[in-house]
Structure formats: structure tokens, C-alpha cells
């Protein structure tokens, strides 16, 4: 699958009166409607932990207090996955938890409009995904266009939120999901520019915290990438893991024995892995007779799901897994921080390439076996 499944405002929006602010705090005054006897929670998006709550009486509730100004907060009900989010800008907020609508400052009403549009698309995406999940594997390819189109509409919405609201707080709420939807190629390029402190949304505590976490993550990714690249040209590191029958095999049984070997890291639960697998199968079928082999290493922790996926995806090659999920021993050996991932080993046992996917894998093998 493709990558998958959130300035300076006008003075009236960003300045708060002395009575609503104190030492970087802003008062929140929330009134709303909800089913009677339902517990209402007020949550800070920074840690997703409730810090205030009340039980709705006669279909109404009210919450008041102080929280850091511009904090991204949301209100939800016990047992209900939906929520209504807003920025703590010191202006009163009125929320209808039956309709997930909000009345308040201009920026919060605009945020609510975006959020309802976002949730509508997400609901459609889940519905399409459920339909695809119920189909036989061989029929899914014919119906993937709707999934991709729905996902693309979600990506376009997040990009428009970011591009059209540089002068207010709204993009802060969608920074994480925008990066996720854009994927590893485009996402970092967009985020490196978007997380500039000159933009008004960077005044939100949530955006500041996200920037810190993003920078740490990118440092880790850089270190992992350098570790991966440093392995190219070096002999493979051996490991041993059980196959689907519980028999232990070493990588050295296959690699360095005169064949080209692709070690493919995947998992049954990984959508992009499943989406890439037909490409690997096609490569295997085309070049196996010429001396090309594949060894699968699964990051599953459920044996039955692992074995079922092997059959569904029609993978004829040797499959190994210690069934420890992300704690699979090969993750540390080969600096695997994301899947799908792979490494290509030449007949002498040297690693010559990593993360060959899509046409890159086909082009490399065509170059080798021409």
C-alpha cells in the first residue's frame, strides 16, 4: 500500500485580556450538551491525559479553570472515540458532543470545521479499508483506486490546512498526521520548513513539543541511515531464526553460497509490506532460475497470522521469524527501524544494496542478470 493511515493572527485572536491570562496561563470556560450521566473529560493533547472532568446532568455540562495559553485541548465522552478539539485562547467555548460542533473564537470555529471534514474522510477511509479486508487477496488490486483516492484527499486536506493557515494556530493540530500522510520522502522536506518558529502556530505548546520530538526522531533516523549505509560493501552478519515449522536456520545457509540473496524484512500487519510483496514475488519468479533467492524475516509476534499471510501473499521462499515483533534480533543487527526493508547480498556474501523497492528492485536485478 501507499503510505498510510493532524501566524500572526489578527490582534483580536491572539491578544488576551489581563483577566483571562496570568503567568502564561489562560482561563478556559466550556459549556456544552451531552447525553445525561455521561462523564465528560477535558484532555491536553500534549500527553493525551485528562486533567478535568464532569458528569453531564440534564444533558448539559460546564468546565472551567486555567491551562497554558494556546494549549491544544479536546473534550470527549467516556466510551466514545470521537472528540472536539480547540485551542485554549481564553475565549468561551460551547460544545455539542452529539454533533461534535463548537462555537467560540473565530480560530476555534475554523478548526472545528476542518476537524469535522477530516473525520468524515477518515471514516470513509476506514470503511473502504474494511471492504478491502473482506475481499480475497487476489481481488483487492482491482479495488485499490478508491482507497488511494480517499487517502490522497486526506493528504490534500492536511496540506491545505498547513498552507492556508500560516498566520494562526490551526496547523499545530495536524502536524503529526501531515508528516505521516506525506510519507518518508516528501514529509521531512515539508516538515523542515513548516516547523519554523516564524509561523504563528509554533506558539502552541503542542507544536513546540512536536518540534522537539520530530528533531529527536530525525536524528535517530539519520544515525540509523548512516549505520545502514555503512554496511554496504561489507560481508553480511549471520543470524539464526526458526522457520514456520520451528526448524532453526542460519542466514549463512543461503548467503555467500554463489547466489544473489535478498533478505526481506516484513510483517503480516504491515500494509506497505503487503503492498510491496507482489513486486518481490515477481522478481523471484523472474530471476530465481538464474540464481536469485529471497529469505523472508518477519517482525510478527503471532505465528498463525504470520503463516496465514505467507499463504495469502503467495511467497514461495524460506520464511524465518523469532516471533518477537519489533524486538526481532535482526532489528539491532541490521539497524532496521521501519519496514518494509531489505538488503541484497552478492554471491560472495557482501551487502551491495539496501531498501530496494518497486522499480528500484527490478532495475537492480535486471542490471545484475542482463
Describe the model.
By secondary structure, the chain is an alpha+beta fold. Helices cover 40% and strands 22% of the residues. A hairpin with a 5-residue loop joins strand 10 (240-242) and strand 11 (248-250). It is elongated, with a radius of gyration of 25 Å. 31% of the residues are buried. Residues 1-23 have low confidence and may be disordered.
Question: What attributes characterize this protein structure?
Answer:
40% helix, alpha+beta, 22% strand, 10 helices, five-stranded mixed beta sheet, elongated, 370 residues
- How is the biggest beta sheet arranged? 5 strands, mixed
Structural class: alpha+beta
Mean pLDDT: 88
Distance between the termini: 29 Å
Fraction of helical residues: 25-40%
- Proportion of beta-strand residues: 15-25%
Oligomer: single chain
Q: Radius of gyration over alpha carbons?
A: 25 Å
Q: Flag low-confidence runs.
A: 1-23
Overall 3D geometry?
elongated
- The tally of beta strands, per DSSP, is 16
Number of helices: 10
| SSE ordering | HEEEEEEEEEHHHHHEEEHEHEHEEH
What is the compact description of this entry?
With 370 residues, the chain is of the alpha+beta class. It is built from ten helices and 16 strands.
Amino acid at each position: 500500500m501507499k503510505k498510510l493511515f493532524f501566524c500572526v493572527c489578527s490582534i483580536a485572536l491572539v491578544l488576551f485580556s489581563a483577566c483571562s491570562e496570568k503567568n502564561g496561563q489562560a482561563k478556559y470556560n466550556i459549556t456544552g450538551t451531552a447525553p445525561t450521566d455521561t462523564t465528560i473529560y477535558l484532555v491536553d493533547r500534549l500527553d493525551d491525559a485528562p486533567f478535568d472532568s464532569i458528569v453531564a446532568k440534564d444533558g448539559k455540562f460546564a468546565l472551567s479553570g486555567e491551562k497554558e495559553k494556546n494549549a491544544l485541548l479536546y473534550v470527549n465522552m467516556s466510551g466514545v472515540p470521537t472528540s472536539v478539539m480547540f485551542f485554549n485562547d481564553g475565549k468561551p467555548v460551547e460544545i455539542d458532543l452529539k454533533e461534535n460542533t463548537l462555537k467560540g473564537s473565530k480560530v476555534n470555529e475554523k478548526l472545528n470545521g476542518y476537524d469535522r471534514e477530516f473525520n468524515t474522510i477518515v471514516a470513509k477511509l476506514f470503511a473502504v479499508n474494511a471492504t478491502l479486508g473482506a475481499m480475497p487477496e487476489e481481488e483487492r488490486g482491482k479495488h485499490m483506486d478508491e482507497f488511494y483516492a480517499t487517502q490522497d484527499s486526506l493528504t490534500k486536506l492536511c496540506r491545505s490546512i498547513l498552507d492556508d493557515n500560516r498566520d494562526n494556530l490551526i496547523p499545530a493540530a495536524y502536524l503529526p498526521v501531515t508528516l505521516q500522510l506525506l510519507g518518508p520522502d516528501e514529509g521531512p522536506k515539508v516538515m523542515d520548513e513548516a516547523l519554523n518558529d516564524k509561523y504563528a502556530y509554533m506558539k502552541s505548546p503542542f507544536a513546540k513539543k512536536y518540534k522537539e520530538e520530530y528533531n529527536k526522531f530525525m536524528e535517530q533516523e539519520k544515525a540509523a541511515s548512516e549505520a545502514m549505509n555503512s554496511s554496504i560493501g561489507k560481508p553480511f552478519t549471520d543470524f539464526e531464526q526458526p522457520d514456520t515449522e520451528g526448524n532453526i536456520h542460519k542466514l549463512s545457509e543461503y548467503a555467500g553460497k554463489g547466489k544473489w540473496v535478498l533478505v526481506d524484512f516484513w510483517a503480516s500487519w504491515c500494509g506497505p509490506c503487503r503492498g510491496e510483496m507482489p513486486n518481490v514475488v515477481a522478481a523471484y519468479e523472474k530471476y530465481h532460475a538464474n540464481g536469485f533467492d529471497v529469505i523472508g524475516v518477519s517482525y510478527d509476534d503471532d505465528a498463525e497470522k504470520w503463516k496465514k499471510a505467507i499463504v495469502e501473499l503467495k511467497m514461495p521462499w524460506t520464511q524465518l521469524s523469532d516471533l518477537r515483533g519489533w524486538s526481532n534480533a535482526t532489528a539491532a543487527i541490521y539497524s532496521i527501524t521501519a519496514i518494509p526493508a531489505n538488503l541484497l547480498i552478492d554471491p560472495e556474501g557482501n551487502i551491495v544494496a539496501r531498501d530496494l523497492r518497486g522499480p528500484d528492485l527490478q532495475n537492480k536485478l535486471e542490471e545484475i542478470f542482463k
